[in-house]
Amino acid sequence: MIGAESLVRTLLASGVDTCFANPGTSELYFISALDRVPGMRCVLGLFEGVVTGAADGYARMTGRPAATLLHCGPGLANGLSSLHNARRANSPIVNVVGDTASFHRPLDPALTADTEGFARPVSAWVRTASSAVNLGEDGAVAVQAARTSPGRIATLIVPADISWGEGGHVATPLPVPAAPQAAPGTVKQVAAILRRGEPAVIFLGGKALLAEGLPVASRIAAACGVRLLAQQSNARIQRGQGRVPLECVPYAMALAQRALAGTRHVILAGIHCPVALFAYPNQRGSVCPNDAEVHVLARPEQDAVQALKALAEELHAPAAPAVSLSAPPEPARGPLVREAVGQTLAALIPEEAIVIDEGVSFGAGFYGQTQASAPHDWLQHTGASLGMGLPMAIGAALGAPGRRVIVVQADGSAMYTVQALWTQARERLDVTTLVLANRKYAILAGELANLGGQPGPVSGRLMDLGNPELNWVKIANGMGVEAAQAQDCDELASLLTHSLGRRGPFLIELLI
Amino acid sequence: MIGAESLVRTLLASGVDTCFANPGTSELYFISALDRVPGMRCVLGLFEGVVTGAADGYARMTGRPAATLLHCGPGLANGLSSLHNARRANSPIVNVVGDTASFHRPLDPALTADTEGFARPVSAWVRTASSAVNLGEDGAVAVQAARTSPGRIATLIVPADISWGEGGHVATPLPVPAAPQAAPGTVKQVAAILRRGEPAVIFLGGKALLAEGLPVASRIAAACGVRLLAQQSNARIQRGQGRVPLECVPYAMALAQRALAGTRHVILAGIHCPVALFAYPNQRGSVCPNDAEVHVLARPEQDAVQALKALAEELHAPAAPAVSLSAPPEPARGPLVREAVGQTLAALIPEEAIVIDEGVSFGAGFYGQTQASAPHDWLQHTGASLGMGLPMAIGAALGAPGRRVIVVQADGSAMYTVQALWTQARERLDVTTLVLANRKYAILAGELANLGGQPGPVSGRLMDLGNPELNWVKIANGMGVEAAQAQDCDELASLLTHSLGRRGPFLIELLI
Questions:
Q1: Is residue A176 part of a domain?
Q2: Is the dihedral of CA B483, B484, B488, B489 positive or negative?
Q3: pLDDT tens-digit profile of A138-166?
């Protein structure tokens, strides 16, 4: 058995059955092995940032790693930005990167690059395979590394001669280490703090944001009068009717610091202490008050849900109060202003939808407006590198079949990974994309205003996407995705409803 | 003066007057400084691979570095693939990468990454600025590093607080070091080899491929009966009517090794010894015979043209024979088969055109067919990372105004950096793009055949771009570029002629 086949069989044996791929010549043995070995779902992306972003979306919805298949250092390089976002989401991913044959590398052919160097900044685990005999085992270790809590990126670099070399064997899957539990002493200490009754906030992260963890946190909040909060951007929050509503820290630092003002104790459950995305002259970077005490109940890699359960027991907290949310709103009418677009979205989010939020400036308020929508998952922009929405939708749709994906997508951001539309069409994925076409990098103008400046002749042009105007209907159609423009909320509601009632992708360009 | 302004003024003083940009918040002080300081041409790209690819094209045509402006580690990451190609072309580039404020970095906000780690594999020079006072000097050193022969990539990382910090001053431009000259002894040794009259090849690279160097090499070739060759892919070759014709080493290793068979001496003038792009089981990686002696007349960073002149003098080589090329062909008629498309291109290349060749498999023969076209420059794919054509066209057009750019562009490759079309439209660049729409990764099928395999159910689908079909007219129109489809050579000739007679970009989708 050649190395490549042993790797494919090992990945499958280890539970990795989905591969997002943009292969090149060095990966031919791997993809040929896929012809012989059934069971791996392969999804082609026409750009590597689509491939790695899809793997992020898949991991967020399944909790399991997909494999990516990338071509040499430069191919991996194209996937790094999405891997940065995935790393910040603690998404497990196994990157398989084909590379120059080891005996050819000293000749420095054109594609040769420092592949390990590219991989390290985004990967918790990097290995260059050195023998076909061991390649199966390398794959099993990579999967184990990816599945180590809280979810990590593992990059296995496979020189072509290791792929084609004989002597490979399928490795036994390695155990997935359980997430470490918080120490009982830590739980008791946090309980003692909360019993004091001083103003406190519990920051929830990771699995504490899902349907199992939130009611436990809600018990504690009700029992002790503490507030629950999430950081500004989170990998996945389960919310909507029947679920515990959860606010996120606002993006604007003035609002964020106001939201935390007076807090004496900050309890961290599965998350690091939230900080501002950007620094400003003469401003603090933490959202928490200087004199607040920070207490770590569970680090991101620890089992935050178990820690919350232990804390609730320690506090003898009664059962969580029933969640009572008002009914979702009706769709708005009239112009596509922020509030009205958010209201229309809130009205029409279908049950069990997956909302991917790369709304950036225009869409910043939609999270707050959709608290009472039908139950859904909300996926945010953890790494702040633009272009996560369209690729993540691919992986989310494949990882959670039967559920509608709605992408709230700023237009400038969408362009970074626009090739994702083609894969959505090819795989006939149930994705509705709302392109918020303000035709500018509005966040830059906003941040410039924060700094007391305003766009001039050069900087203004560098923020302007309106000359020429991007036409998203044509772009989407050119990649096989049906699309239409909405000029007001009535058209938006009509098109959104239309898209939800059909199979396959649909794109709505909102002329905001 | 704030640091950012001192950097802008220093870049201008050092001769860097073009900036390809995809800015983010960390770069706001830089772009605001551009509002106050005249003289920097700023060109927006909607994806960083467009920005860095444009800088490569600009450098190849001007010999001078442009600046790029990129946003933090993930923004730089998106530009790495094009920088890989630029590094292989020895293109001078100065990357300015804004980053997290230095005092904010320890809090690890979402965009924070190992920016230096991303930069190192592609950069000959990397520095993270540590003080606004020194930022001007950092810029001057970066330009000097970029302009050091044979042309290098310099990456200057500028944390936001260094940009906004006071105390900056404009640095004096630093001298550009002259390319080192080949030692006189080396010239004599090579001359002695050539006088033996044994079968020899001179490989030309770098500036030896331009109009000044080629006639000198031609003198030597005629005097000694040696052959001249270029490697498979080169940064820039000046050719066509009135110029010395030059063959490139074929891509297919069997053909390449046959072309070099019997060669006793390989002379390298401004180039490393050519090697195969890919390795194959049980095959040699060098294109040169095992028993050939390799002699370095000039390393890539040395002045190869001067070395050739000295060699010609040493050999008392008479003036170069007049170049006599047959007339260019007439445009072909009928179906869009390879030979006919190449012939039509050869017939219609206008004088002083710049041809950017990312034709990959279908376009592989076009170089040979256009030897007798009107005088033009031919720019090839030095790093083999896909997606260089559309971005390079931006930089080439801006670096050589008044000259038509023709991009010979494979469709699969075009998708990696498709956003470049928008910048072509915005800047109204005289670029004609020929998309060779075979709707597959044909090179993969070809390489699989080389390995004795054939596409199966999975691998075949991973090479197929036809489901759904990309429509390049719609994609181009969606980004503001006029476009049309050609179904046969008559339509191709008509559309190509049409595009050459107008200003601004035009895209022709060849339904091959």
A1: no
A2: negative
A3: 999 999 999 999 999 999 999 999 999 99
Same domain membership, residue A457 and residue A357 = yes
Token pair belonging to A194: 């909360």
**pLDDT digit string (tens) for B146-162?**
999 999 999 999 999 99
State whether A347 and A488 are in the same domain.
Answer: yes
Q: Is B124 on the interface with A (CB under 8 A)?
A: no
Looking at the complex, does the CB of residue A368 fall below 8 Å from at least one CB of chain B?
no
- Nearest by CB to residue B164, choosing from A46, A281, A462, is A281
Q: Which domain holds residue A493?
A: 338-510
A47 touches chain B (CB under 8 A): yes
H-helix or E-strand spanning residue A507? strand A506-510
Hey, which bits of A160-288 come out as E strands?
A: 200-204, 227-230, 237-239, 247-248, 265-269
| Most distant pair of Cα atoms in chain B: their distance | 69
Residue A256 contacts B where some CB pair is shorter than 8 Å: no
Task: Please report, for the domain that includes residue A423, its CATH number.
Answer: 3.40.50.970
- By CA distance, what is B45's nearest residue in A? A462
Q: What pLDDT, on a 0 to 100 scale, did the predictor assign at position B327?
A: 92
B175 within some domain: no
Which chain A residue shows the shortest CA-CA distance from B274?
A109
* Contact yes or no for A118 and B120 at CB 8 A: no
Q: What is the pLDDT of residues A38-55, one digit of tens each?
A: 999 999 999 999 999 999
Interface touch A275/B114, C-beta < 8 Å: no
* pLDDT score of A360: 92
Closest CB to A277 among B110, B279, B462: B110
Q: Are B166 and B37 in contact (CB under 8 A)?
A: no
Query: How many residues does the structure list for chain A?
Result: 512
Instruction: Identify the residue among A12, A17, A18, A28 best suited for mutation to test binding to B, counting B beta carbons within 10 A and taking the highest.
Output: A28
B327 touches chain A (CB under 8 A): no
Residues B146 and B262 in one domain: no
**Same domain, residue pair B472 and B416:** yes
Strands (E), B132-253: 153-159, 200-204, 227-230, 237-239, 247-248
What token pair was written down for B105? 């970095």
- Looking at the DSSP assignment, which residues form a beta bridge with residue B407? B356, B433
Domain end among B164, B192, B226: B164
pLDDT digits (tens, 9 = 90+) for A407-432: 999 999 999 999 999 999 999 999 99
User: Are B351 and B496 part of one and the same domain?
Assistant: yes
The tokens for A133 are 């005999």
Percent of chain B residues past pLDDT 70, beyond the cut = 100
For residue B374, count other CB atoms closer than 10 A to its CB: 17
- pLDDT at B321 exceeding the cut of 90: no
Q: How many domains does chain B have?
A: 3
Report pLDDT digits (tens) over B247-301: 999 988 889 999 999 999 999 999 999 999 988 888 888 899 999 999 999 999 9
Contact A468 B425 (CB under 8 A): yes
Residues of chain B with C-beta less than 8 angstroms from the C-beta of A479: 468, 470-471, 475
Rounded to two decimals, what is the model's pTM? 0.98
Sheet holding B125-128, edge to edge: B41-44, B18-21, B66-71, B93-99, B153-159, B125-128
- Please give the ipTM for the structure prediction: 0.97
Residues 6+ apart with CB under 8 A from B190: B267, B295, B297, B311
Distance CA A268, CA A266 (A): 6
* B371 and B454 part of one domain: yes
CA A78 to chain CA mean position, Å: 17
CB interface of A with B, residues 282-311, below 8 Å: 285-286
Phi then psi for residue A192, to 5 deg, are: -60, -40
Minimum distance, in Å, between the CA of residue A455 and any CA atom of chain B: 7
A203 and A263 Cβ atoms separated by less than 8 Å: no
What's the mean pLDDT in B220-230?
97
Which pLDDT score is estimated for B282? 86
